[in-house]
Write a structure and sequence with these properties.
By secondary structure, the chain is an alpha+beta fold. The protein has three domains: 2-223, P-loop containing nucleotide triphosphate hydrolases (Rossmann fold, 3-Layer(aba) Sandwich); 230-313, Translation factors (Elongation Factor Tu (Ef-tu), domain 3, Beta Barrel); 319-422, Beta Barrel (Elongation Factor Tu (Ef-tu), domain 3). 19% of the residues lie in helices and 35% in strands. It has helices spanning 2-9, 26-36, 42-54, 70-75, 105-112, 130-141, 161-175, 211-217, and strands at 13-20, 82-87, 92-97, 117-123, 146-152, 182-187, 230-237, 249-253, 258-260, 264-268, 272-280, 285-286, 288-290, 294-299, 310-313, 319-330, 341-346, 349-362, 369-370, 381-394, 405-410, 416-422. The strands form four sheets. Strands 2-3-1-4-5-6 form a six-stranded mixed beta sheet, with helices on both faces. Strands 7-8-14-11-10-15 form a six-stranded antiparallel β-barrel.
C-alpha cells in the first residue's frame, strides 16, 4: 500500500489549461477526457446523469462535469476557472477549464499562469477566430512551453482532411507573430470521443497521437529553469529550544535552479556573501534542493535576513532595479490610472510603486500595438513601465516564470488589479 501511495506522490505532474472561443467544446473535451480515462467516480456519474435528464438531454452531458456554477449550467457556458485533478498510471494532471468569453479574459490568464501546456480548441466549422488569436497570444505572453491545437467538432464537417489542413495553416500563419516553442495539432470530436483517448476510426488519414497519449508523454522536465538559482525567503525559523538553541533557518520555496550544501551564495538586497551550511526539511537534512522544493536553508554566517530577501548564487545574480517594464493584463473594472499608486507583489516581496508610463495596448483582432489610445480597461493587455519605492531582484519572465511574474494590488481596496510579466 505504501509503495502505491509513494509511487503516486512521486509521479510527474502536468498542469494544462483549456482555451478557445465560446461553444468550441472545452468543457465537453475535459469531461470526455475524464470519462474515457475512467477518472469519474460513480457518484459523479450519477449526478451527471441526473443533471443531464433535468436539462432534457438523452445522453450524458459531459460539459456539466466542469461547469459547476448554476449560471454556467443554465447558459451552457463557462464563467469561472474550474480545476479538475486526475491521474493515469503514467502521470498526474491538473486541468484548468477557463472561460471563452472576452469579458472573462482575466480568468483565462489566472488559469493559464502556471500551466505547462495549453489546449486551444478551434471549431472545425469556424476556423481561427478572434478568441483563438487572443488565447494563443495569452499563451505566448505567459510563455506556456507547449501548445496543442485541438480542431474540434470534426464530426460536423464529415471528418474532412482538407478542412483540418486548412485550419492548421490558418493557425500557423497567425503563430508567426507569437513566441511559442512547440505547437501540435490534433483533429478531434470531443462529443463522440474521436482521438481523445482512443484513435478515431473516422479519420484514418490522421497518423499522429491521440490527445491522452500526447498529454502522458510530452516532455516537460526541461520547462523548469534549473540554471538560475533563486530562493525568495518566506519566513525565518528560530525554534529557540534546548535541542536547536542557536538554529536560524530561512524557509521558502526554491523558485528556480539548484542549491547544494557548501555553495557560495549572496543575499539580496544587502549583497553579503556566505556558504550554505545545511538544507533541511521536517523529515531530514539534504545535500541539495531543486526548483519547486520547499526547504529551510541555514548559512555559515549570521546575516540579517528577512522576508522578501533573496538567496542567489554568488556568480549568478538577477537584475536589481527600481524601474520595471512589463506586459500586463488588467483585471479590474476601475481603469488603470497613469501616475496611479499601487502595491507590487513579487515572489515574497512587496513594494509600493507608481505607473510611470503606458507604452501601448494590444489589439486582439490582429495583435498590432495601439499607441494613441492608452485608456486601459478590464481585460485589456498592454505594456507599461513602473517606478518602485525600492529595488526588487528579478529575471525577465521569458527567462524565469517565477521571478519574472508580478501582481499589482490596489492600495485602497486590496484588490488584485493586474498580472504582469517583466520584460
Amino acid at each position: 500500500m505504501n509503495e502505491i501511495v509513494n509511487g503516486y506522490l512521486n509521479m510527474e505532474l502536468l498542469r494544462f489549461t483549456t482555451a478557445g472561443s465560446v461553444d468550441d467544446g472545452k468543457s465537453t473535451l475535459i469531461g470526455r477526457l475524464l470519462y474515457d480515462s475512467k477518472a469519474i467516480f460513480e457518484d459523479q456519474l450519477k449526478a451527471l446523469e441526473k443533471a443531464s435528464l433535468l436539462k432534457g438531454e438523452e445522453n450524458i452531458n459531459l460539459a456539466l462535469l466542469t461547469d459547476g456554477l448554476k449560471a454556467e449550467r443554465e447558459q451552457g457556458i463557462t464563467i469561472d476557472v474550474a480545476y479538475r485533478y486526475f491521474a493515469t498510471p503514467k502521470r498526474k494532471f491538473i486541468i484548468a477549464d477557463t472561460p471563452g468569453h472576452i469579458q472573462y479574459t482575466r480568468n483565462m490568464v489566472t488559469g493559464a499562469s502556471t500551466a505547462n501546456l495549453a489546449l486551444i480548441l478551434v471549431d472545425a466549422r469556424n476556423g481561427v477566430v478572434e478568441q483563438t488569436i487572443r488565447h494563443a497570444f495569452i499563451a505566448s505572453l505567459l510563455q506556456i512551453p507547449h501548445v496543442v491545437v485541438c480542431i474540434n467538432k470534426m464530426d460536423l464537417v464529415d471528418f474532412n482532411e482538407e478542412r483540418y489542413h486548412e485550419i492548421t495553416q490558418q493557425f500557423l500563419n497567425m503563430a508567426t507573430k507569437l513566441d511559442v516553442k512547440d505547437i501540435r495539432f490534433i483533429p478531434i470530436s470531443a462529443l463522440k470521443g474521436d482521438n481523445i483517448v482512443k484513435r478515431s476510426q473516422n479519420m484514418p488519414w490522421y497518423e499522429g497521437p491521440t490527445l491522452m497519449w500526447l498529454l502522458e508523454t510530452i516532455y516537460i522536465s526541461s520547462d523548469i529553469n534549473y540554471i538560475d538559482a533563486r530562493f525568495p525567503v518566506q519566513y525565518i525559523i528560530r525554534p529557540q529550544s534546548k535541542e536547536f538553541h542557536d538554529y536560524r533557518g530561512y524557509a521558502g520555496r526554491v523558485a528556480s535552479g539548484v542549491f547544494r550544501k557548501g555553495d557560495k551564495v549572496k543575499i539580496l538586497p544587502g549583497g553579503f556573501s556566505s556558504i550554505i551550511k545545511s538544507i533541511d526539511t521536517f523529515e531530514a537534512s539534504h545535500e541539495s534542493a531543486y526548483a519547486q522544493q520547499s526547504v529551510c536553508i541555514t548559512l555559515e554566517d549570521d546575516i540579517d535576513i528577512s522576508r522578501g530577501d533573496m538567496i542567489v548564487k554568488e556568480n549568478n545574480v538577477p537584475t536589481i532595479s527600481q524601474d520595471v517594464e512589463m506586459m500586463f493584463c488588467w483585471f479590474n473594472e476601475k481603469p488603470l490610472q497613469l501616475k496611479g499608486k499601487y502595491i507590487l507583489r513579487h515572489t515574497t516581496n512587496e513594494v509600493k510603486c507608481m505607473v510611470n508610463e503606458i507604452r501601448y495596448k494590444v489589439d486582439m483582432t490582429d495583435l498590432h500595438r495601439i499607441e494613441d489610445d492608452k485608456e486601459i480597461k478590464m481585460n485589456d493587455i498592454g505594456r507599461l513601465s513602473l517606478r518602485l519605492q525600492k529595488p526588487i531582484f528579478y529575471d525577465s519572465y521569458r527567462k524565469n516564470r517565477n521571478t519574472g511574474s508580478v501582481i499589482l494590488v490596489d492600495e485602497a481596496t486590496n484588490e488584485t488589479v493586474a498580472a504582469g510579466m517583466i520584460v
